[in-house]
Amino acid sequence: MTKLSSLLDQVDSGTMLLPEFQRGYVWNRDQVRGLMRSLYRGYPVGALLIWETEPSAFDVRGPAAPHGGVKQLLLDGQQRITTLYGVARGKPPAFFEGDANAFTGLRFNLDTEVFEFYAPSKMKDDPLWIDVTGVFDKGLAPHIARLNADPATTANFATYVDRINRLQSIRDRDFHAEKITGAEMTIDHVVDIFNKVNSGGTKLSKGDLALAKICADWPQARTQLRQRLTTWQDAGYNFTLDWLLRNVNAVATGRAQFDQLDSVASADFAKALDQATEYVGGFLDLAAGRLGLDHDRVLMGRYAISVISRMQHLFGGLGDAATQNRILYWYIHAGLWGRFTGSTETVLARDYEIGQTHGIDGLIDELERWRGGNLRVGPHDFNAFGMGSRFYPLLYLMTRVLRARDLGNGIELKKQMLGHLSALQVHHIFPKAQLYERGYSRGEVNSVSNFCFLTTASNLAISSRRPQEYLPEIERDHPGALASQWIPQDPQLWRLDRYSDFLKERQRLLADAANEFLDGLRAASTTGTHETLPRITVADTASDDDELTAVRALCDELVARGMATPNMDVEIVDPTTGQAVAVAEAFWEQGLQVGQGQPVVLELDPDPVGMTRMEELGFNVFTSVDALRNFAQRRGQEASGEGVDDPVTPSEDRPAEAGPTADDMPDEKAIRAQFGNAMRDVYVRSKKEAGYTASGFLGMLQRHGALETARRLLAAPHISDGYTALYEVGRLDLTVENVVLQPEFESLFSDEERETAQRRLAEFDFTPKR
């Protein structure tokens, strides 16, 4: 057993560190409050797992102690120790990577014994709200003096002093630490142990594993990679570490599997990193200058870039103008058709080989064979909806390259000085609000073929006017401007009642223009691509859609609470087939907190088939802002202990979605938690054992929680569709009614509710099972 104060001293001295393969700090404020509440109340907070090793064994994060000797490397416990160090010291530890706002400013209320983060309007000048860091740092005296000076605290002075003492005593709390040692321990052994103890928490990607081994020989590798990513981020492109490693691997080994980097010496890796950086930068300049793809939103087909990096390495660059055009042709089609969204490594390996032996023409031929001989854009492809679809970047590209003109002033968009009020915005040709009033779906309203790009000033001027009002004025004042944006010329199609016909005609015009441009690239023509396009600003479109405004507000709210920043308006791809299954309003690919829990999707208007497939892939899908907000709030309550007499302490080895366990909580709360787990088990087992995917039931659990969902189903006048489906396959043991009748849940339901459950099962001649 080791006291917390001793553990923190070890962090200060540089004898307790993190192995370099660990990801950064991912906890949010709710988890911080939950940990402190558990410690204050004396609840168990889990053991630590530590690797005792020589400092030369492999790279660590943070400055190690200057003297030699054994170091303590945290394998399990990073989040807890980082939190406690940050709260106690008022600053993050030296090995910290993350958002320090998650643990700074914590306060404790001497009257209610709750932990909250500082809110001036609520806590300023209130002696009952004390600074937790101040208690650890300066002791009891300042707080006792403050209480003495306030007559309002006199009656409970002894109680308050006792509570301050109890808070400060957390630093003397004993932690149990399991230790692994042994000279035979390698990075592979340790990473395997790490993944096993974190089976429910933050998992390492293949790229993390590869980088862990690289860092053993070249400690600066992670820093160097991050510097490149930061440079591109500053230029408007957001890439991941795994993606950059793909490019380095392509250059260094010509292979797709990360384990190929095991045999690459550190000096060779460093050289390959420099070369890959140069190749990526060269291609980004080409894509921006020749296609106008100059920011993150429109950069399609990212994995295709590693193939192009490999080609540059093999053939000494991007080649002449004709070769560059064919590279761009291949790149655009690879992005449009999701070449690398399925079995990424398998496809990359094949394309590396083909590129090496047959060059860019071989890659084009392979892509054509893969597509069944069809590399043509069809009108229906522009029926894709949202800025997350694959055909949004193509529309943007065409606008930049093919001399599209602004509808407000008739000037070519690429020739304008795009400053204040002239940054490009997405404009809905038919206003969204008017289409919704006529009953069109979100997908129809936000079809890519209802989009065009305008300067901000022009977008504001047109506002929400009807096309039949403003399009004639544009054609009169700026002849040819409509045609340059592929807007049908027939005035009859500009009426709201002809919207569907308008979309079909514009989709035809867009497809014809796209194919003509792409055919020119393949034929090695340089028409329309000699000129280097200027970089521009693309502004967010002011939303007149209340639901989308609510989505953005929710995402901002979750980020402020310490959740991850989602991708907005993003295409969700089936990793098996590479097909798009949805375009989500928001997508947390690595969970609401990075590396913790299932991917989370917010899709306001899901396709039933796509919804089912996302659930099969293990995604947590929400179809309303309120449902996701309630889910996040329940997670926060479980993590912080709000409304729970004996909360579960957040830990690295149990994700928040799993819910509390009975051993951690008193009887009533334990029963509720157990019931929640049983209800989630109904969904999982129904799908796995009975072949029934209860999407509606899952949605109810997300919106209302387990107990309220059960009560709503029992209160319904008729049995649910799910009940009928389970009856037909002889699995009424998987119904909510059967769960409700389990003896351990008797206290949660009224006699009437239990009688309803019993009656329904009796009507179908079913004997409840445990």
Automatic annotation (TrEMBL):
Pfam families: GmrSD_N (PF03235). Residues 5-214 form the GmrSD restriction endonucleases N-terminal domain. It comes from the Bacteria. InterPro entries: GmrSD_N. Residues 634-665 are annotated as: Disordered. This is GmrSD restriction endonucleases N-terminal domain-containing protein. It comes from Kineosphaera limosa NBRC 100340. The lineage of its organism: Bacteria, Bacillati, Actinomycetota, Actinomycetes, Micrococcales.
